[in-house]
Amino acid sequence: MAQETALEAVRNRKTNKLFILVDDTLGTRYKVINPAGEVLILPDLLFAEDPITVQPPDFADEFSEIQLDAFAKYQEKAAAQEALARAAALRAPEPRRIDPEPEKKKRTPSARKEPTPPTRRGLGAAWTSPRLTFYKHKIEPLHAKQSFKVSVDGTGDFEMTKEEFLLQFNDAVMSPSYRSDGLYTYPQIPEKAWRYRKT
Prior knowledge:
The structure is a single chain. The protein has about 200 residues and is α+β, with helices and mostly antiparallel strands. The chain folds into 2 domains: about 5-85, SH3 type barrels (Roll); about 120-199, no CATH class. It contains 6 helices and 11 strands. It has helices spanning about 60, 65-90, 135-140, 160-170, 170-175, 175-180, and strands at about 5-10, 20-25, 30-35, 40-45, 50-55, 120-130, 135, 145-150, 155-160, 185, 195-199. A 5-stranded antiparallel beta sheet has the order 4-3-2-1-5. Strands 6-8-9-11 form a 4-stranded mixed beta sheet. Strands 7-10 form a two-stranded antiparallel sheet. A hairpin with a 3-residue loop joins strand 8 (about 145-150) and strand 9 (about 155-160). The protein is flat. It starts with 6 loop residues before the first strand and ends with a strand. The relative contact order is 0.12.
C-alpha cells in the first residue's frame, strides 16, 4: 500500500505492538486497527499513555501488511460515506421556518444546583466459577473505580477494580474468546492474580 502521510498509532502495553489509531474521540476508548487488520474499539488503558506519529519510511518496521491494507480500506470506506453524506446534504430541502411562540414567563424556583453524581465505587459484580474466569458482560458496565469479585472454587476470592483488570489482565481483554465470546478463563491462576486474592 502506498501511504504518503504519517500515521498516528498507539502501543499496546502487553504486546508492545503498534495499533493504527483511527479515532480518539470516543472518551476512554480508541478505535484502532490491530496487527491482524481488525478494526476494534478498545479501552485506552490497554495502550501506552500518548499516541505516536509514525513516518512512511518506518511503516514496514512498525505495521503489518494486513494492517496497512485494512487501514487503506477503512479510509476508502470513510471517504465514500463522507461523499454520500455531502450529496445527501445538498439534496435535502431547506427546513421549514417556524416562528417561535411568544415566550411565556416561567416561575423560577430558587436557584438550586443539582448535585454532581459521585463516582461509583465499591463492589459492582460478583460470581463464582471453578477457575479464574472474567465475564465481559459483567465487567464492561462497571465504572473504572468499581470492583468485582470472582470466587474460585477451592482457591478463594479475587477482587479488583475494573481499572486494575484493564491494566493488569491485558492478555485476557485482548484474547479472541473475551472479545467475541465475552469470557476468558485461565487454565491455572496466573502469578499476577494472587495479589488480588482476599484472605
